[in-house]
UniProtKB/TrEMBL annotation:
It comes from Vecturithrix granuli. Belongs to the RNA methyltransferase TrmD family. This is tRNA (guanine-N(1)-)-methyltransferase. Gene3D superfamilies: 3.40.1280.10, tRNA(m1g37)methyltransferase, domain 2 (1.10.1270.20). The gene is trmD. Pfam families: tRNA_m1G_MT.
Amino acid sequence: MRIFVLTLFPEMFTSVLAHSMLKRAIDKNLLDIRFYNIRDFAEGKHKMTDDVPYGGGGGMVMKPEPIFRAVEHIVAAHQLTSPVVVYLTPQGRTFNQQIARELALKQDLILLCGHYEEVDERVRMALVDQEISIGDYVLTGGELAAMVLIDVIARMIPGVVGNEQSITHDSFYQPLLDYPHYTRPQNFRGMQVPEVLISGNHKKIDEWRQQEAIQRTKQRRPDLLMTNDE
Ligand SMILES: C[S@@+](CC[C@H](N)C(=O)[O-])C[C@H]1O[C@@H](n2cnc3c(N)ncnc32)[C@H](O)[C@@H]1O
């Protein structure tokens, strides 16, 4: 899968991609991520990417021309046939595991990171296919949101997470939260590992985990257990 990131601050991504699962996904060629600095597509001596808003008011608006040029360049340079252009914005639909699974099936994603007050509305009108938010709060820019998307989507690509079972048991994969996990020592400061987990009886262990996942979901996220007609 290829992800093209359009940003004013490509350096922000360096550390996130250099470690753990994302580094492995890139090293194994399961994920190809390229960065394009929107400023490189701006014109004039000052390479301006933002300007004052029509109608007045505070904050600067990201100009449409550099963003259009950048997307057109990416599409032509990489011969993309059906890229999905995603704009990270608090006004988009809220990101979740299901959206990540859908996006992981796409061949090419272009992630647009906004900054300042907003992007020019015409970018949304004519360039963007999907708008996605990572939650009901306002970030300074779309970079952190893009990193969240990349991380979650990467886990959905077959081969990225070594043990596929750890994904299918993750919270939200089924409409359940994950069950409790324990490792050694068996007794830590008087707190014991549940007997069933050291019984060696895998059928019982699976049942216990399923029960715990349901219990935990009922307590913490009962909304996940509701069907559409409830
Ligand atoms: C300061 S915000 C602009 C917020 C905008 N004025 C609004 O109220 O909808 C600058 C940029 O950060 C990004 N951003 C902020 N919050 C976000 C969120 N919750 N999810 C995704 N992107 C976000 C967007 O790319 C946005 O263009």
